[in-house]
Amino acid sequence: MSFIHLDRPDCPEAHRPEAHHPDRKLTARKLITRTGSSPPVHCGHVAMVTRVTKNMSAKAKQSNKSADKNANDRNDVASKESDAEKANPQWKLISHEQINTLLDLTVEQVQFQFEEILGLKNYQTCLKEASLLDYFVSGFWWTREMNYTCQQISFIMALLQFLLDNISEKQMPFVDNLNEFAKMISGTRQSPSPEVDSLFDAEQAMSITDYLKCSLFQNYQLYEFLFSQPREELLLGKKVRLPASLCPYVC
């Protein structure tokens, strides 16, 4: 193995201009060829690239924070709406716009609309359907006379539906259903957030209690009987065999 000495006069490399002038600047291509690496970057370029990178990183972090905040705000709004819906459920069968329309109708027109809403086609011959129609129409008309808002009316209609379903579907005893009513009406006295008022005040909650006491709970056994009959048609009367001695006195 032989070695080439660059400082020898007979060496071909010694006759190159770079060998006699070490101060001479090398071009980037020659420097890469000789050293196998790229030339060093100027400090000003490094600083500029660093600042640009930092700015892009800061903007990305700020954008991510903004997106996270918007997502959290949407989640908070959805959570509050969900809590409000749980505390103050609305009747699913009609919207607030439909309630506004019903408020301008007469009681006969309201009854006709509820026949369609509830799907009660045989209320004139079926005691159960007639009772249901009267139950909901009377409840709606009472809320109208109380000048409640659409949201309040929708809640009361949902409450009427809930209590009646407890009788018809769950065969819930009187005391249990009364406790369910107390839970729901007490929930309307609690505000879902500091910015939102409660659905009802104390006087309104008492009025609802008095109405349901007279309309449903005092007739609880009748509603239990209504939904416990196996036949679709309930007889309004039945034949009674009377003693012969009483027949002359019967009109």
Helices, strands, pairings?
Elements: H1 17-20, H2 28-35, H3 43-87, H4 96-102, H5 107-118, H6 127-145, H7 150-168, H8 174-187, H9 202-215, H10 220-228
Helix pairs in contact: 4-7, 5-6, 6-7, 7-8
Description of the molecule:
Helix 5 (107-118) packs across helix 6 (127-145), helix 6 runs antiparallel to helix 7 and helix 7 runs antiparallel to helix 8 (174-187). This protein has helices at residues 17-20, 28-35, 43-87, 96-102, 107-118, 127-145, 150-168, 174-187, 202-215, 220-228. The chain folds into two domains: 9-72, no CATH class; 96-228, no CATH class. The protein is mainly α and 251 residues long. The protein contains ten helices and no strands.
Please indicate the count of domains.
2
Strand content: under 5%
Provide the gyration radius in Å. Answer: 43 Å
Helix content: 55-70%
What characterizes the major β-sheet? none
Kindly name the structural category: mainly alpha
Count of DSSP H/I helices: 10
Query: How many strand segments?
Result: 0
Sequence of secondary-structure elements: HHHHHHHHHH
Would you tell me the overall average pLDDT? Answer: 76
Distance between the termini: 144 Å
Shape: elongated
List keywords for this structure.
251 residues, 2 domains, 60% helix, disordered N terminus, disordered C terminus
Summarize the structure.
With about 250 residues, the protein is mainly alpha-helical. The protein contains ten helices and no strands. It is elongated.
